[in-house]
Structure of Sugar phosphate isomerase:
Amino acid sequence: MRIGTDTSKFPGASEHGAHWTLDKIHSLGLDGAFFRSLFALSPTLDPGEIFEISAHAASLGLYLEVGTAKVNPFATPEAPEIRALGDGDYLLGLEKIIRACAAAGITELWTATANYQFKIKGLYACDRFRTDVWWADQLAATAKVLAKLGPLLRDLGCHLNIETHEEITSFEVVRLVEEAGPDAFGITFDTANVLVRGEDPIAAAHRVAPYTRQSHVRDVALAFTDDGIGRFLAPCGQGVIDWPALLAPLLEHAPDATLSIEGIVRSRAEMPLFVDDPVWQAAHPDLTVTELAEVYRLTRSYADRAHLDLLRRPTGADEELAFITDSVAHLRTVLKELTCPTPS
């Protein structure tokens, strides 16, 4: 499995651009790059610029993956640039991005369903808990958008891979992909986000593995807080995730899927699990007692390392780069042990 990085969290990427970022990633010995937006390859979506970046990645032997835009219609007001691209038609803007990616040979495309407002505290930071439109209605509307995009994706030979983002459960992502069709849709497995929804990351890996084509990979630190349980990001191998157990189903079902380290920017991205809140509990109809109990067990297992002041302090560029390189080193060690076990 090839290991690269999410460039949106890569130090220097936003300042220096895609060409520099690919060179830097290659110099560090990584295998590829995920750009969250096609605008990161070309601010004007110039076909020549996009093709040049794609060709440069290929010349360096790097995989290249690109994000499109959110597919939940109730999240689209937060992406006015996509609507503008479609001359007022958001779906048309999304289709233009997909076509531009395909024209440059980029066929594994990321998407997600909603957003997280870090400046807001409480349940309503997460779109799952909106009261103006219930989450079930957001999922139904998302499914309709996927159905409209399916024919185009099939014609172009692309996969649109829905992330296990902070607001959506792995159960729900699997259902969306199965309904829309795995021939055009897949999953971007974010290993840290499933814990925000109270899921056991190993059980989630087994659920999503048959449809996983991309990933956002990072470990998790857990701590009991006044809100319930706090999830913080940690480099792979320095948190609570059992990486051999998590990677095993991916190797079995999705050996060609990429592992893109999603790092940190200025903080460890604390997100609360309001596990004692009846509203939070009612909003997770698929969640089992067994998986939630595993989240509690993992939180207790991290207790000796759970110093909230340290977990909540700001991070700097050196630590943010080390987050990526340390994660890559750990994953390569685990993958080597899984694929080339030492003879007994």
Summary: The domain at 3-218+238-264+315-339 is CATH 3.20.20.150 (TIM Barrel). The mean pLDDT is 97. The first strand starts at residue 3 and ends at 6. The longest helix spans residues 317-339.
